Amino acid sequence: MATDRLTQLQDCLDQLALQFYASLRYLSTHHPASSFSTPQIQNSQNPTSQSTTQADSTQPPYGSTDNNVTSSSAAAAPPNILDIAPEQRPDTPRTFAAAQQELAHDLILKVKQIEELVGTLPGLERNEEVQRERLKELEQELKMVEEDRRGAVGEREEWLGRLEGVISRVGR
């Protein structure tokens, strides 16, 4: 089914948004796991901040629900990878890098397709005066085509009249 350029452009933009979403979802669910450490804030002007920082380092990580777990025991026991749903398991670094390349390539291709469609839209390289001149030319062309059409309709009517005359003479 043929569609106009604006509809094609809208479809491509919708597909690009979907590709962005799918890429971000894949990257957020399949990235290799990494551990985060709490940043140590150094303040040389306030000596009490060092004791506070040392006391904070024995606290469980942010978001931990078990108050009896220390940060060293939490880091020593990472979750078992088989306990994670298959669609959220991290990929190997090689697979993840290849997938990143493929996702980036697909996004670039879609953006190029959109740029080509935008480039085919009328009026991007023309100013208002050139567009008005083009409209006048098209109006003149339309008038000439309309005259040709009227002439063809008149000729058709003439031939139809002749044909009816011949048929009526044959019928007598």
Provide structural commentary:
The longest helix is centred in the C-terminal third of the chain and has 44 residues, at about 130-170. The chain has helices spanning about 5-30, 50-55, 70-75, 95-120, 130-170. Mean pLDDT is about 75; it is low at about 50-75. Helix 1 runs antiparallel to helix 4. It is about 65% helix and about 0% strand. The protein is mostly helical.
Please give the radius of gyration in angstroms: 37 Å
End-to-end separation in angstroms reads 53 Å
Average pLDDT number: 77
Query: Fraction of residues in helices?
Result: 55-70%
The main sheet comes to: none
Number of helices: 5
**From N to C, what is the helix and strand string?**
HHHHH
Structural class, by secondary structure, is mainly alpha
The amount of beta strand, in percent, is under 5%
Task: State the low-pLDDT regions, or none.
Answer: 49-76
Give the number of DSSP strands. Answer: 0
Tell the overall outline: elongated
